[in-house]
Amino acid sequence: MAKDFPSRAENYAQWYNDLVIKADLAENSAVRGCMVIKPYGYAIWEKMQAALDDMFKKTGHVNAYFPLFIPKSFFSREASHVEGFAKECAVVTHYRLKNDPEGKGIVVDEEAKLEEELIIRPTSETIIWDTYRNWIQSYRDLPLLINQWANVVRWEMRTRLFLRTAEFLWQEGHTAHATKEEAIEETERMLDVYSDFAENWMALPVLKGFKSPNERFAGALETYCIEALMQDGKALQAGTSHFLGQNFAKAFDVKFLNQSNQLEYVWATSWGVSTRLIGGLIMAHSDDNGLVLPPKLAPLQVVIVPIYKLPEQLAAITEKAVQIKNALEEKGISVKYDDRDTFKPGWKFNEYEFKGVPVRLAIGPRDLENGTVEVARRDTLEKAVFQITDIENKVINLLDKIQKNLFQKAYAFRENNTHQVDSWEEFCDVIENKAGFISAHWDGTPETEQKIKEETKATIRVIPLDAKTEHGKCVYSGKPSTKRVIFARAY
RNA sequence: CGGGGUGUGGCGCAGUUGGCUAGCGCGCUACGUUCGGGACGUAGAGGUCGCGAGUUCGAGUCUCGCCACCCCGACCA
What number of helices (H) and strands (E) belong to chain A? Predict the structure, then answer.
């Protein structure tokens, strides 16, 4: 299958595109800008969903579902929100087709024009807050902690599989609280959930922090984010959590009676991660031999390949392989025994390597004699021979080791590609010649950020939560600054 | 929406100054030999050359128009 695809060094963008398609994760669809997520790619998403959903439930949230369509008027209620999304909204104007009177197929029935046009949701704050108005009367109704798994549409001009498509899958949490403090606490809690997920499931180290006003969500008072670094030195926003203040409560008139019998506006948060995470997962770990998946998200964790010449050998190997498979499955490991006779072992090795299966076991006649199995790990491509005794625990240990190794590798990469910079010359040099994160002082003004963006295409990715206070000078304007922020070019 | 590029079996491509039956590799089907890192042989199947006009005795090839996709920019998770 995928013998020839470019290395990361040759052409990183092409490497990514080819990998997504040749590893059977997704493909472009008949609809411009929209992708088909294929079973192997969707299986990764399902694993992500399962882990995240569990984390949401454990932090007290419940799932619900709101409509795909949003009345246009809802959108205009929150000024900065409309402004932020207006340019990328798909609009439904009619509800019926008819046969073309001139016999040229099917056309829109102009008589079936909607009285009020419907927006296809780019995000659901407006429809949800319009609904919450009826759900919230008293402090006893709060907090309201709801998540929805959904698709959304943002009409992007340029798209890339997983990283930016016109339609994508995500989850959006929308919560309502009685106090500002509680809402901020929720915003921060969910940021922690995201970083926990990124680091412990995706093996992707992330920086936690705030967005600058320029990068803030349309309608939010504060946007928190987790930001990751990809292998080409570009940043990827991996998740956002927004403190919305009372903006949406005011726009949709959502009030509650507090314990002192006073009417107050509700405090809000929203937070989301999308199928973009799959793009991040690919770009963070994969190599020139194909996909590399962290064991905790790999649809298939272990593959067993038999090596044989004669049918009798296969029969004996199969017996052993099925034993191992059962033992692993009992421990909750997903295993495939690939006994297809139509492909040679070498072909299978390459195939599973390309698809990022973390561990491969090979059993041949020699192993049968010695009571051994050949174990190959995808992350380092190392092979070793294990005694078959207690193989399930050995494999579990190995999977754990791979998971940790991927994180450590990615962490070391980020450390090696984060540059502390104190002059503008240095800043430009790093952006042009090294890429990666730049830690530098910023005077805190949107104007300076804008100038830097125009001159270098780098933006402030994150103002780290743990940034220590130190006195310095803005790398661009020379004005005083009290902490460093992280700049990078971004996806 | 600007700038560049590409449309030929499932995939990747070749096809000369217009010329006869449109080729090659991979993949696919059948049979046989193979099987510890992408095996080989033999025999097959598969194409209105993106669409529409035009020029010509003759168009994959030339002209005009359209469409689609990809890459680079402006917008963004």
Answer: 14, 27
